[in-house]
Amino acid sequence: MEDGRKSFTRLTNIIYTCRAQYKQMEKSTTSDLQPSSGGGGGAAAAAHQTTKDLFSGAMGGIAQVLIGQPFDIVKVRLQTTNRYTGALDAATSIYKSEGPLAFYKGTLTPLIGIGACVSLQFGAFHAARRWFEARDNNDHRNPEAAFVNEQQQQLKLSNIFLSGAFAGVVNASLSSPIEHIRIRLQSQPHDRQSRLYSGPLDCARKIAVEAGGWLPGLYKGTCVTLLREATAYGAWFATFEALMTADVNRNRRTDRAQVPAWKVAFYGGLAGEALWLVSYPFDVIKSKMQTDGFGVTCRYPTMRSCFVHTWQQGGFAAFWKGIWPTLFRAMPVSAGTFAVVEMTRRAIS
């Protein structure tokens, strides 16, 4: 309990520190946001908006990890081993044999990394969205111009999907090594004698040694990660934005900030379901490749070989193993992420 209180206190301090730093930065740049005859105001306003996107995303990432980590442990165990009959059996077995803290095994890496990843996701998404808005205004050479009419713009759903896909591809540069380390930590035995890694840094170092380098080791499975991220985040952002836009239009709201927090969370939860329904088979392949060995112990040298082996072993159903706990997890995790991001954006606007 004492360790839990200390961890919560540290997390609270991190959040308050980030918010204080943002406020200080906001004060120092306020004068730059005023319109100027030279046109610098638009660029400064866009930069300021991007900073808010990144900060809000980081807060959403912290919420995402704290809510979703226990579900993620169960998902990875189901995807990478045949020891359990289902999600409930896996959760019960983990609790009995490893204790409640096992559900937060490997949390440090995603707590630091996922905050950065979600920050990058939202920053990249809104940057791409503003580019499409500027292009639609026949001003594609100046994406900052779209900032002025951000609330009035309603992009086509296909462009929102492409913006989300772009965010996913950008995010893969961070998420691929972070998730690789997390998955190996989550899937290793719990008892000290059988553990392969003592922590995230030890895991990263051993992966690099076994693979013959940092890049081929940490970025193993990156091709399938790119496919997963592009489809997943395209659907994620498109679903959420479509639901928010429909709500604004249906209720004749003048601003999306008028959408109640509970609706934001609900729409975010539905977006989370859409994310996994379109990308889960890629996630199964990614998990298999990132828990695979290296060299002579490697069973899946390529993404294609992993697809073929998975199909031969279990057919269509093998690509959906562990989907139910994942969907169960997706609703609260995605709801929390979007709610925290939207509320943070409103609080600092």
From TrEMBL:
<dbReference type="GO" id="GO:1990575">
    <property type="term" value="P:mitochondrial L-ornithine transmembrane transport"/>
</dbReference>
<dbReference type="InterPro" id="IPR050567">
    <property type="entry name" value="Mitochondrial_Carrier"/>
</dbReference>
<dbReference type="InterPro" id="IPR002067">
    <property type="entry name" value="MCP"/>
</dbReference>
<comment type="similarity">
    <text>Belongs to the mitochondrial carrier (TC 2.A.29) family.</text>
</comment>
<protein>
    <recommendedName>
        <fullName>Mitochondrial thiamine pyrophosphate carrier 1</fullName>
    </recommendedName>
</protein>
<keyword id="KW-0999">Mitochondrion inner membrane</keyword>
<keyword id="KW-0813">Transport</keyword>
<dbReference type="Pfam" id="PF00153">
    <property type="entry name" value="Mito_carr"/>
</dbReference>
<dbReference type="GO" id="GO:0000064">
    <property type="term" value="F:L-ornithine transmembrane transporter activity"/>
</dbReference>
<keyword id="KW-0496">Mitochondrion</keyword>
<dbReference type="GO" id="GO:0005743">
    <property type="term" value="C:mitochondrial inner membrane"/>
</dbReference>
<keyword id="KW-0677">Repeat</keyword>
<keyword id="KW-1133">Transmembrane helix</keyword>
<keyword id="KW-0812">Transmembrane</keyword>
<feature type="repeat" description="Solcar">
    <location>
        <begin position="51"/>
        <end position="131"/>
    </location>
</feature>
<keyword id="KW-0472">Membrane</keyword>
<feature type="repeat" description="Solcar">
    <location>
        <begin position="155"/>
        <end position="246"/>
    </location>
</feature>
<dbReference type="InterPro" id="IPR018108">
    <property type="entry name" value="MCP_transmembrane"/>
</dbReference>
<dbReference type="InterPro" id="IPR023395">
    <property type="entry name" value="MCP_dom_sf"/>
</dbReference>
<feature type="repeat" description="Solcar">
    <location>
        <begin position="260"/>
        <end position="347"/>
    </location>
</feature>
